[in-house]
Amino acid sequence: MTEIFDLAIIGAGPGGMSAALQAAEFGASVVVLDRKATPGGQIYRDVTQSPLLDPSVLGVEYTEGAELVNAFLAADIDRHQNADVWHIGENGEVLYSQDNQTRRLVARELIINPGAMERPFPIKGWHLPGVMTAGSAQVMLKSDGMVKDGAIFAGTGPLLYLIVAQYLRLGVTVNAVVDTTPAGGIGRALQHLGGALSKPAYLIKGLKLLNEIRKAGVPVFRHASELSVLGESKAVGLQFKQDGRTHSVNADHIFLHQGVIPNLNMTRALGMDHHWSEQQLCWTPTLDDWGQSSIPHIAVVGDAAGIQGAEAARHAGRLAALQAMHKLGKVNKSDLGSMSADHLKAMNAFKAFRRFLDAYYAPPTQQRIPTQNSTLVCRCEEQTVGQLRAGFEQGAKDPNALKALTRCGMGPCQGRQCGHTVSELLADWQSKPVSEVGYYRLRSPQKLLSIEELSHFQEVQPAPKPAEVSA
Fold it and tell me: What is the pLDDT of residues 105-157, one digit of tens each?
């Protein structure tokens, strides 16, 4: 008979590591599966083995993650890196790929932490060689110490300015910052000023980043619109409008960014309840304050639960683990309340601050919902706005019907790069709320699998406790 883990955690980002450490304090058998070679997630990627001579150029929030990663590595936790989960069953079964083998384990409770992804940025030429997301620029920097001189950074959101500042601290030239944040951001955000003032250190940090870029002399074009990548076979520059004038900036590398959104493929494949967040303009799992989903034994933490940031993810991970320990009978209800109080208070403060950020940096409609028929939407299946509109006019009124007619969303990314755009396009064409249009229906497996891999199968079970061995 297969032995069962008390808790399986998928993803070793700030939320997953914090949850594992909290559960380990109660003597639970904990297993963590993470698809990367080292723990840390995106925010703490390679923090304990950075290729940079001085990792502090990436910022205090990054280097402080080393303490959490080291604590996670030292704890009595069953860790599996390079473990890519592709199926979660209703009975707590988890199937994943590791070392070209299929492996299986079962857990009583699960906490999933699949992280976030950058919001699709469907403009003319966004598929050309030389165009990447700003997050990709940061991954190259953190993992390999690689940078691209003379790039353009375009879009909106605080992460865009952080990555530009990181480049500048390393002496890398930046040709331009093209900021698409619509005018009137302060006016939109003022109603949430109280939440912003609850986190003054974050406000100060943001102002310092802007001042750092200004002092470096990087051209910054604010309130830009109508972006299009120049070039036929590869990117050679970016064209845009500002104050009624058309501008062009030359560059071989263009990094696009308009915020991050939850990575939905795992939560959607599980059949979890989701809702459309008007605040963050994205689909989000429907959860309670402890991260509990509509599936009784599964919680979601980190940015997959709604974009809050690394520090908030740590509190969310602790909350989900405490709730799991309560459900397993290791924490009584009274202790659950007292142990959770500080984390719940911290989460409320982060949510209030996030409302300010989301109002200020709301990505403009024209950058989310493309109108030109030639603009590519589904990069995997090469489907344009015009082709999708033709499918809509044939009767495809929801994303799944449109997928059946056009193959949009059937490629290797399984809709990650087009899902939100398709939902918003269909809502716009029908003058309906996005919540009524829906999203793709996803199923396992959540990655490409080979027959060879499936032919190598291994059960993974908890290690016996010392008392069990002596008995």
Answer: 999 999 999 999 999 999 999 999 999 999 999 999 998 888 899 999 999 99
pLDDT score recorded for residue 467: 53
**Structure tokens, 289:** 């304050």
Largest CA distance in the chain: 80
Residue 125 tokens, joined: 């030429």
The answer to whether the beta carbons of residues 222 and 122 sit under 8 Å apart is no
- Assess contact for 291 and 323: CB atoms under 8 A: yes
Name the CATH superfamily for 120-258. FAD/NAD(P)-binding domain (3.50.50.60)
Q: How confident is the model at residue 471 (pLDDT cuts 50, 70, 90)?
A: very low
Paired with 395 in beta bridges are none
Whole-angstrom distance, CA of residue 284 vs CA of residue 41: 19
**pLDDT tens digits, 315-348:** 999 999 999 999 999 999 999 999 999 999 999 9
Dihedral of CA 196/200/205/211: which sign? positive
8 Å CB contact between 133 and 322: no
Half-sphere CA count of 323, side-chain side, radius 13 A: 25
Domain ranges of the chain: 5-116+262-331, 120-258, 369-437
The CATH-assigned architecture of domain 369-437 is Orthogonal Bundle (1.10)
State the pTM of this model.
0.93
